[in-house]
Design a protein that fits this description.
The chain is of the alpha+beta class. The protein has one domain: 4-Layer Sandwich (Metallo-beta-lactamase, Chain A). It contains 9 helices and 18 strands. The protein has a 7-stranded mixed β-sheet with strand order 1-2-4-5-6-9-10. The termini are far apart. Bound molecules: zinc ion. The site of zinc ion has 5 residues, from loops.
Amino acid sequence: MKLKNNYQSKLAILISTLFLQIITPSFAIAEPVVEKETLVKYQTQPGFYRYKLGNYEITSLSDGSVPQDLHALLKGGSQSEVDQLLTKAHLQSPVEASINAFLINTGTKIILVDTGAGGFFGPGYGGKLIERLKNIGYVADQVTDILITHVHTDHTGGLVKDGQAAFPNATIYVGKADLDFFLNVKNQNGVNGYDKAYFQQATAALTPYVKLGHISPISGSKLLFPGVNAMPTPGHTPGHYFYKVESAGKSITFIGDSIHVESVQFPKPEITITYDVDQPAAAKQRAIQFERIAKEGSLIAAPHLPYPGIGYINQATVGYKFIRTEYHDREGI
Ligand SMILES: [Zn+2]
């Protein structure tokens, strides 16, 4: 075969381009019309992400995601300020919030941190935790301990299925102050404008475990078991807890709802959300914890940061910035 020289090649391309322009009618460059029925419909899968921490295996499990109308939910910042921050992040309200739960396999214990929303948000909105556990080879009965960061529906809802304990063999560790607030019979119709749904759903989620005698209330800082420390961080709720898990010189801290909206509350940590039981206390606690975490360079995991929600909090020119952990998808790590 004889190769064309460079000039001949260029000429051939020019001629063919001109020819195409002449014979191609203008409407032919429009995007092809695809019948809707022929589009493949599928959902993002698989919703589990493995992270090796010392000798422990941590798995971030997606319980689903929910849209959040930030104009209605955020407090302490003007709508235009919020919109500017969202625009910087190529977002607009409503934004989609992840609901992450975390599984820790220590070799002797199977521990969950939070349990997602269960069936409380309705079909399509959360409630995927049990299926995701199944996907990685676990059944609910194997879970030995559950660390609840706080008693909100998207963290405790997955504790129950059809009114029964979904994790019948697990001990539930939860802040005593949250139990006192959310299970108090006097609060079941709401407190100071804080919606009654929080209290009623908390009662529905926790009562089966109260009956089983499987609730272990926490007060103050406490070593729950070797390598797992509970640290009180009240504000978002009165009994909000961080859990620091350590193995072979590595650690990760599960920081619960000290952050809801990455693009807004990292640059402006003083902005709060209506879910905070005590807005000023929530903002103050966030300021203290972000400063400490950034200084320490600690690895954190959060339920509402974009899935898988594991990374670092760095000081930024304005406020803070979230740095996602590197992505692993190969054998052996
Ligand atoms: Zn919450």
